[in-house]
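Predict fold of Mannosyltransferase; 572 aa.
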Amino acid sequence: GPRCGAAAAGRAPPMGRRALLWALLAALRAGWCLLPQSGYLHPDEFFQAPEVMAGRDILNLQVYYPWEFLSSFPCRTVVFPLMTSGVTYWAIKSLQQLDICSSCINSYTLLVSPRLLFTIFSFILDYSVYRLAPLWEADLWKALVLLAGSYVTLVFYTRTFTNTLEGLLFALLMVLVSSRKSNGSSVEPTSSPLIGVITTAGFFNRPTFLAFALMPLLYWAGLIVDSQKSIKTVINHFLKLILCACFTAIVFITADTFYFTSMSLDNLYSINKGSLFDVIAQLHEKMVVTPFNFLSYNLNPHNLALHGSHPRVTHFTVNGVMLFGILHILAIGAGFKMLKKYVHQLMRVRSCYRGLPGLLVHSEGNPTLLLFYFVPLAFLSLFSHQEPRFLIPLILPLVLFSASQNRAVKWKHLIVIFNLLGAFLFGCLHQGGLIPCLFHLEQLIHSPAPSNHPRHYTLLFAHTYMPPRFLLNIKKTDRHVEVIDMAGSGEETLCQTIEQQASNFTCSDCHIFVIIPGTVRGTITKCGISFKNETLIFPHLSMEDPPQMPILSSGNWRSQLGLYILQLHRDQ
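Predicted 3D structure, encoded as tokens:
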């Protein structure tokens, strides 16, 4: 089977076959990114990096700035967006300026270039499995195939999410804390500073990283204390970690402060040239610490409710199964068994103080891997807002656990079917018409005008996810394109807005387009507005306006699973 790469129980195929399977799945990851993937998972994949970087910072395109990046109360660090989407946009801008390619900046390169960088970074996961599998008694090639064949890797880890970066930093942290010398007894001394850097960087990327970092840090601390005879050496390790963590925090705070206050050192000196202390005081006064803003916002239950409240068990019962399928269920089963076993041992044999350190340091790999999986899951479950993507960093401990003791082998066919369905649903179907629609509109907007009169476009989006404006590739100075996002507006509001736009048909070269899913196409018909052109983009599945099963089974199924681009008729 393509997921487990295992033949009948007890007789594994040659290592070469599994290696070939991993190579094919790795090629699929890169190839599907370049195609590109049409599925649109969540607005955050665009509005937490590419949309912001394509604006005034690098390409000067018309964009929508999300609330997290407003200078009045910034909740996201700018360091990672600059290092990822920012770098790729700077590269394609440089290529165009150097005349290496005349039209480097278009909707395709704007979408694919940051995704391609993330796809390259996603192989950090594969490297982590390669390093960790022998240490955690997991079958290397089974673990690699489980990882590469998971739709979470193929879809989520090739997108520009902060959760993706969180998963990669968690993987690096696991590699660092698991690094041992040849005798397996002590941690490599170089890991302390790097652990400090990665933990702090992860915290600034997403403060929830602390939930993922807790168990690796406890494990590392246990190994340090266990392996070092001298208290001085132990203190030295911890001091290195703390100093490097503080230095990294200063770098992030300084970068965010300069970015969000739009102040340079020259400005500060011009404010008060007399004293360096005054300059430092000015900086301190305007200091931006984005994780604290993030936490103060998210710890307010009213704010979380605005983004959707879920039962506390959603991660355990729904999201874990949605992302990892049978592997999550097997982990829960194994977790209960091991918990029962350790409770019995604790009651009968061991004294209380030996319990946790013994479990963390001296146990065989699996119980600790389960803690690496379930402890972050439990902490994330304390918050009422629970989305599946929050759990994607947990794929690494889960595949390592699943690839030990032939756990996943007998479920290989189910695992293959589950990941095929997941890849198709989230990689192709889910809001899958919106990106091709923006590609189509970008070509239309930038097509040569037949007359000298500038054309004006009004693009009205309804019942779709928020459209990323940067994919239309419109310069900030251009005023000939207007984007109206109606979100999930009701029938009356929608009709009023369309009628209002139709009545404002003043210029001779004005074009009004309404973009709407096929499932709510009937709503537009009730508005009594005629359209001169209809373009259907297939496939497009809106979970907010799902297709009705009776209509799907009729001949009209294609329109139900499509996104319409409707052009208003001039003579209304």
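The radius of gyration is 26 Å.
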